[in-house]
Specification:
Elements: H1 5-16, E1 26-27, E2 39-44, H2 48-63, E3 67-68, E4 77-82, H3 87-106, E5 110-115, H4 116-121, H5 124-128, E6 134-136, H6 144-152, E7 155-156, E8 158-160, E9 183-186, E10 188-189, H7 200-204, E11 208-209, H8 212-224, E12 229-233, H9 246-254, E13 261-265, H10 274-282, E14 289-291, H11 299-305, H12 311-319, E15 329-336, H13 343-356, E16 360-365, H14 383-406, E17 412-420, E18 427-432, E19 437-441, E20 453-461, E21 466-470
Parallel strand pairs: 2-3, 2-4, 4-5, 5-6, 6-8, 9-12, 12-13, 14-15, 15-16, 19-21
Antiparallel strand pairs: 1-7, 10-11, 17-18, 17-20, 18-19, 20-21
The protein binds S-adenosyl-L-homocysteine, iron/sulfur cluster (SF4) and FE3-S4 cluster.
Length: about 475
């Protein structure tokens, strides 16, 4: 683990720096009038953790007396809560910033950038987009009210990208959750792995665990307020170490009375233990679903990615699930076109797809990220080859997903009602325990209770959804 040098360095920095890191560099002339109720709008990109950070940021603003606008056009304060996992995610942010520049020329709005791009680019964002009023890093989100106050008072280019060691101890009652069906609960922030392609260790810092008692008490509060399903979140959720192991945490949280389904994301294969596999297959409250990213089916590529496991070790860990595996929905992530990926490496990935038969997978073309170790590897695969590989993988996955879904036709399963839609009136969207999307036909005008578990009869299946009726 000689690659862990930067980690030690980051840990030392985190311990040493608790003060803020603001860079206030100027003033504008006209302060806003006192007593206005300002409206805010938050646009979030990226993973569930960033989603939940958006809920935390909303809560902080509401506590300060802000109200929520329905659109960015209607808001006085627009927050872009960004992701930088791949270049495409970053393009989306800059394109929205371009749109907001025009908006800001026409009316008086404050623009703040938060999330992973903010942490990655820090003050450089002001150079690229001078109309940004403030930049808030991922490890400083509790500082939002102060930054907004400073920006409102006319200070320009307000920034705090400090690494506050207690950022993860966010007061649970403040977050304003968007979903009424499932509550997101962050249990660990940061990542101590060092995958050579990945920006997350830079943007989210080293691992910081919440104490398990805080998590259980937050879940208890959520269930008391009506939630029946909770998803525990972390960049690397199963390396949890907040006073007990992750497997023990699942057991303890599942004891909360009234909780129906407990989910978690994302797991690293190297932290996937026998103890955890046993809890997943035996505890009835743990939803029967596992997302275990593999990235590649080639040991050569895995080594270059510094994933810390071989394909054989990955399969051995899946084997910990034993017979229980059959009742689980299984999904993964793949990166194709990683520097140096040969045809043979890619074929190994295709073989792994056949061996494991995932119910679903997310696959991406490798995207070079600033400051990551993989930038030093020679990337000589033509873009057309990368695209072709991605399409082949996705096509085969679609076929496998359809086969997996067809098994359910004619059976009755439990699903949680999530929202109306998705396309026509008379349909609702629901999710099964193993994370399949259900298009539920109930007939026009019928309203289903959000968050309720219902029995549904599956009548048809496509690769991406089950068609069903209330049983
Ligand atoms: N912590 C999780 C993954 C978090 S990022 C894990 O280790 O499994 C989510 C997914 O984005 C990754 O699994 C990977 O497939 C993809 N990803 C991350 N960095 C990428 C990059 N530079 N290019 C393409 N895909 C990337
Ligand atoms: Fe990124 Fe996940 Fe690897 Fe951490 S474990 S560096 S989050 S891909
Ligand atoms: Fe994106 Fe940051 Fe999540 S890079 S995927 S928002 S941790």
């Amino acid at each position: 683990m000689s690659e862990r040098g930067p980690l030690q360095e980051r840990k030392a920095r985190l311990g040493a720096r608790s003060a803020c890191d603001r860079g206030v560099v100027g003033f504008i002339d006209i302060p806003r009038s006192e007593g206005d109720t300002m409206k805010f709008h938050i646009q979030t990109w990226g993973c569930q953790m960033n989603d939940h950070d958006g809920e935390r940021l909303s809560g902080l603003l509401i506590k300060e007396g802000f109200t929520q606008a329905t659109t960015a056009e209607d808001a006085d304060l627009v927050l872009l809560n960004t992701c930088s996992i791949r270049e495409k995610a970053v393009h989306k942010v800059y394109s929205e910033l371009g749109r907001l520049r025009e908006d800001k020329n026409k009316r008086d709005i404050l623009i703040g950038v938060t999330g992973c791009l903010a942490q990655q680019e820090q003050a450089a964002l002001f150079k690229r987009a001078p109309h940004i009023d403030f930049v808030l890093g991922t490890m400083a989100i509790k500082q939002l009210p102060r930054l907004v106050e400073e920006a409102k008072a006319g200070k320009k280019r307000v920034i705090d990208t400090g690494e506050y060691p207690d950022n993860h101890l966010f007061p649970p009652e403040v977050a304003r959750r968007r979903s009424t069906a499932k509550a997101l609960v962050t249990i660990i922030e940061g990542c101590n792995h060092a995958c050579t392609y990945c920006i997350v260790p830079t943007t989210r810092g080293v691992e910081r665990n919440r104490p398990w008692q805080d998590i259980v008490s937050e879940v208890r509060g959520l269930v008391e307020s009506g939630y029946r399903e909770v998803e525990l979140l972390g960049q690397n959720v199963n390396s949890f170490n907040g006073g007990c192991s992750f497997a023990e945490l699942l057991e303890r949280v599942s004891e909360v009375e009234g909780l129906e389904w407990l989910r978690f994301t994302t797991s690293h294969p190297m932290n996937f233990t026998k103890e955890l596999a046993k809890v997943i297959v035996t505890n009835p409250k743990v939803a029967p679903f596992l997302h275990l990213p593999v990235q590649s089916g080639s040991n050569t590529v895995l080594r270059r990615m510094l994933r810390e496991y071989t394909v054989e070790e990955y399969l051995e860990r899946l084997g910990y699930l034993g017979e229980g595996r059959a009742g689980l929905g299984l999904s993964t992530d793949f990166i194709v076109g990683f520097p140096g990926e040969s045809n043979e490496d890619f074929e190994a990935t295709m073989r792994l797809l056949e061996t494991v038969q995932y119910d679903s997978s997310f696959s991406f073309i490798y995207s070079p990220r600033p400051g990551t170790a993989a930038l030093r590897l020679k990337d000589d695969i033509p873009p057309a080859v990368k695209t072709e590989r991605l399409q082949r993988l996705q096509k085969r996955q679609t076929e496998l997903a359809k086969v997996s879904n067809l098994r359910f036709v004619g059976s009755t399963v439990k699903a949680r009602v999530e929202s109306p839609g998705p396309t026509e009136a008379g349909y609702w969207m629901a999710r099964t325990g193993d994370w399949k999307v259900v298009h539920l036909h109930v007939g026009s005008g019928r309203v289903l209770p959000f968050g309720e578990l219902v029995d549904v009869s599956v009548t048809m299946a496509g690769p991406h959804f089950l068609g069903a009726e209330i049983a």
